[in-house]
Amino acid sequence: GAVVSQHPSWVICKSGTSVKIECRSLDFQATTMFWYRQFPKQSLMLMATSNEGSKATYEQGVEKDKFLINHASLTLSTLTVTSAHPEDSSFYICSARPDRGRTEAFFGQGTRLTVV
Amino acid sequence: DAKTTQPNSMESNEEEPVHLPCNHSTISGTDYIHWYRQLPSQGPEYVIHGLTSNVNNRMASLAIAEDRKSSTLILHRATLRDAAVYYCIPVARGDKIIFGKGTRLHILP
Question: Which residue in B6, B41, B86, B97 has the most chain A C-beta atoms within 10 A of its own C-beta, making it the best mutation to test that interface?
């Protein structure tokens, strides 16, 4: 149990285009999902917390108009990188926390985004 | 957020036990101690978590100091597949999960 599926695993896009990444909790409901990015040889950096049915909460320094997060259902959250630039190339990772008062979270396999 | 201190890296021989330490002296009384690990080019994987008592699961054991200012993740018999970065993270109920630098564990065949 507790599987989080992230799609796509990797994507290459041209500068100026937008890319959507999906994060699904397959066998549990998640009111809360988290989005991270990770640069090579660095730790994960939390970008935003996504709550089902409400606006995401972004961490300081993360542009909410550039990284659009939608959490439309209890099993799906999406991250859209708008007007992508080469500096947005990174490893994006989502995680989902099961409801019912649990504190642990489960992570997707990550999406490698390359902007050319 | 509670600050954690972990060794940058550790080495262990295959098939031997590994003890990964973590100091979290500023932990709140209601923070759970979580451990995650990240294998190369993958998302993190939940390992174990606890509050006060020691915990065991199929992956590892978690030993929590009586004053809760430190904890140790124990891998009972390391394999090459356990080579990863291990993160110790205090987490309050309902709060976000913030990653530190973790410990890079090398397993020697």
Answer: B97
Q: Are B20 and B6 in contact (CB under 8 A)?
A: yes
Q: What is the pLDDT of residues B47-87, one digit of tens each?
A: 999 999 999 999 999 999 999 999 999 999 999 999 999 99
HSE-up of residue B5 (Cα within 13 Å, Cβ side)? 6
Nearest to B43 among A2, A101, A108 (CB): A108
CB contacts, 8 Å: B93 with chain A: 101, 103
What per-residue confidence (pLDDT) applies to A103?
Answer: 87
How far does CA A113 lie from the centroid of its chain?
Answer: 12
Length of chain B: 109
Calpha distance A55→A72 (Å, rounded): 10
Q: What is the pLDDT of residues A54-90, one digit of tens each?
A: 889 999 999 999 999 999 899 999 999 999 999 999 9
A16 dihedral zone (left: phi>0; alpha: psi -120 to 50; beta) = left
How many angstroms separate the CA atoms of B27 and A1, rounded? 30
The continuous run of DSSP H or E covering B84 comes out as strand B84-91
Q: Are A30 and A74 a contacting pair, CB within 8 Å?
A: yes
Q: Residue B90 and residue B1: Cα distance in Å, rounded? A: 8
Q: Name the residue facing A43 among B92, B95, B102 (closest C-beta).
A: B102
